[in-house]
């Protein structure tokens, strides 16, 4: 057994699965939602040593019996015992068995279709149209059934050897009512009558060899829209479908149109044809993540796959397109070639994130996808990796049950940012050739990070491992501090910590830093410098034209740059000659350096003040995020808070007045997003004209006089502004809109808006509403994040968690620790008060925090770093605001 991981005992020398036949029957469509099952597993017994038991994974299942057929002999289990903590079952056959070769293990079991979005589970929804009588329902909701097996929840659905490198093929058959639809990874093979009256048995074709976490099935009142790939696969086009519950299928057409194009695109890019005979996308009404890449049956949260041209906010267009592409990338990168163990999760998620954005850039070149990637993915990755309690991209995972906590911004966003950096260095064509070679070499198998580096090294002729190893296996990233001398600059790299206090032992890594250094007589005339990378702690770069120079062009490298204050000011003056990515990096770095103490908030405020005339949405997105964070951290400081509000109103006024309220025919997607962002920010900051217009439109909409008064993309802005300024009546009106919303994105938008309440009483009322059965478990974090971002009432989130942990929070969310960890991390990470951090730490000190302990570390580190920043910069911020007329 490998010593660095807790895996099933003995399989490396004794028992390894090769094929499963999964049969589910006697499913209870209501009541207790139980089902019966038989798992028939073909195994290879590789060693002639005597054994008496077999250990496999099973969780929240009852195993009724087990039989092992070895050659002509069949043994029945004498006893079945469970290790609940390790989610294992031991099948004890009593007698010593001495056998080597192929065998068949048959386990009969019982499970429950749960409601915690893990394993085989049920989702509640309110149907559109007539629903067959057989569909499960209660007084208020109907239910669909589906699976979520990643990371380690296949064992909740059926007994199995639930580890990513124990690949096997699968046959699935499901007994379902005749008037419902069953789906699985592969096409339907046959349907036959069941002995159970009114039921049929649906059998599916055999899957390719794959990991247990990629198996999937679903049962419900489904309908679909269909397209076909333009490319031919084995001589014919592949059917592509989006499945929904009845009445929603037409909202799947946008995803469908993207899907078949992306399948063809990736087949070309990866130089391997899509390997299955169909692609199904299924909208699931309750979903813990955004989507899941089950091979051939990809499941999605409804807001990540459905889009209504008439009623959906346009931001969801971007989301659907990207999430569809991300999950399709996994069909190759993750499904065809799977990481050997969970420690290398980034191989799946980092790459799928990068190439997902690449596909969207291919389909929608006018969306400035890489600018979006820099302001969203890269900056978010920086934020989390700047914490002392971050983790390396490739992180040791001893127990598979720990892995859910690394489905995080490091694996996805830092992973993809580092891939973007490497692709830029090698050249995209060379990089993609290396990736294609890697996929071909390891298809239908498992691979490691080193396997990827080997393929890229061979394709590029460079030793990729030598300069990428630290980026993958070491925690954190550097800040490169620049010092100027005539004709040259000195560079020094050190680990960037948000708290700004890296100890010597935390700052030993020397990263390979691609400089992306441009210099010249002006920003428009600058060219690439001959020095391409920094490979030591300190170095001096000569032949620099001091008129203009810039490091990390387009923010391709994953590091912060800390310029001298005078250079930061000059780059601000030259902003109109910089790319969108450059401007995002400039603002993002200036903010982060202020918090960490490498730079100053005064320098940030002076830089951002120049951007009043900015017209690009993605740059404004970064400005609003950075300034929103500064205002949040200093929100309890009286004069400073008022001064920053005045600063923000002056900053945003020209832009919000210029962009206006009306969406024009033929206007670009990005202009629409700019309008939505500016109106939301201006209204919440207190720009009077915006507040008045938002309230006017809100009144027309809520009164029913004009339901078109609010453009779908402005619902979040108008609702939020109305609730902030309208108090209880506006709160009740939006809450009612939530309860009656029939649009796909309506409930999310209402929850995000309701978090803008201004009184502790309304905040507590909202939190009680969140933890009622009116809000699905998948959405309970949405409103909480809005409350956490609301300085006026964010303390109420902590008060509610502390006071209701045992009777509401833990009982509701602990069935799915992914959901609990996310709720806590995003609900509590906005404070900047050490006493709150102490209070949180004390509260959880005697709790069993397995499964969300890393989230608590992130909360603690973030709060303390913000508190340190506030204390350090309070005086200088106040002085700057006074000197510049924002504090009278």
UniProtKB/TrEMBL annotation:
Its cofactor is Zn(2+). It comes from the Eukaryota. The keyword Metal-binding applies. Gene3D superfamilies: 1.25.50.20, 2.60.40.1910, Neutral Protease Domain 2, tricorn interacting facor f3 domain. Keywords: Aminopeptidase, Hydrolase, Metal-binding, Metalloprotease, Protease, Zinc. Residues 254-471 form the Peptidase M1 membrane alanine aminopeptidase domain. Its EC number is 3.4.11.-. Binds 1 zinc ion per subunit. The record marks 412 as: Transition state stabilizer. The active site is at 327 (proton acceptor). GO terms for biological process: peptide catabolic process; proteolysis. One of its GO terms (cellular component) is cytoplasm. SUPFAM superfamilies: Leukotriene A4 hydrolase N-terminal domain, Metalloproteases ('zincins'), catalytic domain. InterPro entries: Aminopeptidase_N-like_N, Aminopeptidase_N-like_N_sf, ERAP1-like_C_dom, M1_APN-typ, Peptidase_M1, Peptidase_M1_aminopeptidases, Peptidase_M1_dom, Peptidase_M4/M1_CTD_sf. One of its GO terms (molecular function) is peptide binding. Residues 16-214 form the Aminopeptidase N-like N-terminal domain. Residues 548-864 form the ERAP1-like C-terminal domain. Belongs to the peptidase M1 family. PANTHER family: AMINOPEPTIDASE, PROTEASE M1 ZINC METALLOPROTEASE. This is Aminopeptidase. It comes from Pleomassaria siparia CBS 279.74.
């Amino acid at each position: 057994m490998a010593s660095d991981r807790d895996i099933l005992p003995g399989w490396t020398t004794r028992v390894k699965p090769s094929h499963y036949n999964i049969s589910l029957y006697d499913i209870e469509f209501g009541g207790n939602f139980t089902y019966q099952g038989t798992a028939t597993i073909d195994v290879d017994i590789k060693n002639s040593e005597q054994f008496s038991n077999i250990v496999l994974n099973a969780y929240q299942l009852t195993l009724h019996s087990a039989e092992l057929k070895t050659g002509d002999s069949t043994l029945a289990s004498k006893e079945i015992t469970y290790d609940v903590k390790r989610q294992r079952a031991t099948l004890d056959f009593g007698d010593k068995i001495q056998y080597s070769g192929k065998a068949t293990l048959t386990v009969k079991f019982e499970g429950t279709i749960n409601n915690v979005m893990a394993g085989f589970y049920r989702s509640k929804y309110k149907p559109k149209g007539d629903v067959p009588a057989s569909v499960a329902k209660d007084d208020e909701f109907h239910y669909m059934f589906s699976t979520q097996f990643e990371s380690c929840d296949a064992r909740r659905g059926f007994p199995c050897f639930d580890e990513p490198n124990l690949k096997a093929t699968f046959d699935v058959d499901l007994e379902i009512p005749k008037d419902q639809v069953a789906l699985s990874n592969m096409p339907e093979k046959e349907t036959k009558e069941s002995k159970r009256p009114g039921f049929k048995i649906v059998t599916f074709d055999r899957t390719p060899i794959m990991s247990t976490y990629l198996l999937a099935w679903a049962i419900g009142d489904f309908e679909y829209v269909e397209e076909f790939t333009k490319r031919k696969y084995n001589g014919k086009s592949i059917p592509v479908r989006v499945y929904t519950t009845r009445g929603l299928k037409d909202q799947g057409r946008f995803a469908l149109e993207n899907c078949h194009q992306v399948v063809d695109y990736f087949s070309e890019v990866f130089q391997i044809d899509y390997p299955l005979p169909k692609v199904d996308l299924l909208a699931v009404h309750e979903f813990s993540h955004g989507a899941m890449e089950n091979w051939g049956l990809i499941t999605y949260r409804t807001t990540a796959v459905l889009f209504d041209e008439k009623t959906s906010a346009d931001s969801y267009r971007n989301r659907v397109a990207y999430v569809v592409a991300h999950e399709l990338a996994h069909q190759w990168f993750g499904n065809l070639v799977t990481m050997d163990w969970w420690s290398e999760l980034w191989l799946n998620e980092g790459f799928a994130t990068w190439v997902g954005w690449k596909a969207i850039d291919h389909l929608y070149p006018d969306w400035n996808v890489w600018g979006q990637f820099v302001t969203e993915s890269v900056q978010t990755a920086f934020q989390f990796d700047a914490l002392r309690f971050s983790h390396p991209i490739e992180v040791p995972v001893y127990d598979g049950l720990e892995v859910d906590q690394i489905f995080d911004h490091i694996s996805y966003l830092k992973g993809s940012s580092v891939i973007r950096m490497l692709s830029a260095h090698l050249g995209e064509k060379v990089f993609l050739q290396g990736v294609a070679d890697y996929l071909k070499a390891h298809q239908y198998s498992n691979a490691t990070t080193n396997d990827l580096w080997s393929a890229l090294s061979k394709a590029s002729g460079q030793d990729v491992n030598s300069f990428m190893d630290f980026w993958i296996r070491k925690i954190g990233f550097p800040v490169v501090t620049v010092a100027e001398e005539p004709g040259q600059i000195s560079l020094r790299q050190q680990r960037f910590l948000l708290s700004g206090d890296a100890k010597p032992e935390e700052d030993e890594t020397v990263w390979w830093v691609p400089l992306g250094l441009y210099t010249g007589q002006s920003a428009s005339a600058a060219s690439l410098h001959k020095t391409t990378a920094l490979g030591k702690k300190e170095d001096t770069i000569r032949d620099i034209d001091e008129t203009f120079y810039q490091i990390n062009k387009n923010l391709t490298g994953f590091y912060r740059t800390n310029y001298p204050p005078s250079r930061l000011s000059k780059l601000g003056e030259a902003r109109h000659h910089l790319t969108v990515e450059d401007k995002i990096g400039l603002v993002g770095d200036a903010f982060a350096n202020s918090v960490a103490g490498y730079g100053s908030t005064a320098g940030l405020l002076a830089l951002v003040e120049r951007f009043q005339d900015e017209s690009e949405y993605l740059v404004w997105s970064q400005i609003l995020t950075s300034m929103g964070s500064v205002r949040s951290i200093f929100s309890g400081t009286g004069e400073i808070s008022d001064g920053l509000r005045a600063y923000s109103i002056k900053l945003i006024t020209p832009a919000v007045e210029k962009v206006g309220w009306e969406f024009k025919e033929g206007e670009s997607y990005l202009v629409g997003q700019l309008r939505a962002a500016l109106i939301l920010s201006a209204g919440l900051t207190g720009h009077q004209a915006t507040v008045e217009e938002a309230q006017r439109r809100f009144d027309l909409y809520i009164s029913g006089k004009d339901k078109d008064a609010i453009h779908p993309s402005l619902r979040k802005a108008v609702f939020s502004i109305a609730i902030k300024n309208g108090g209880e009546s506006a709160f009740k009106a939006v809450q009612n809109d939530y309860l009656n919303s029939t649009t796909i994105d309506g409930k999310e938008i209402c929850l995000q808006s309701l978090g803008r309440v201004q009184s502790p009483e309304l905040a507590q009322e909202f939190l009680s509403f969140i933890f009622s059965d009116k809000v699905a478990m998948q959405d309970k974090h949405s409103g909480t994040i809005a409350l956490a971002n609301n300085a006026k009432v964010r303390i109420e989130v902590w008060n509610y968690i502390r006071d209701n942990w045992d009777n509401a929070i833990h009982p509701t969310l602990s069935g799915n620790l992914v959901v609990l960890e996310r709720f806590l991390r995003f609900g509590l990470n906005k404070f900047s008060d050490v006493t709150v951090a102490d209070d949180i730490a004390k509260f959880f000190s005697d709790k069993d925090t397995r499964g969300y302990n890393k989230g608590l570390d992130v909360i603690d580190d973030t709060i303390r770093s913000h508190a340190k920043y506030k204390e350090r910069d309070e005086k200088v911020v106040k002085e700057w605001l006074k000197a510049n007329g924002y504090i009278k």
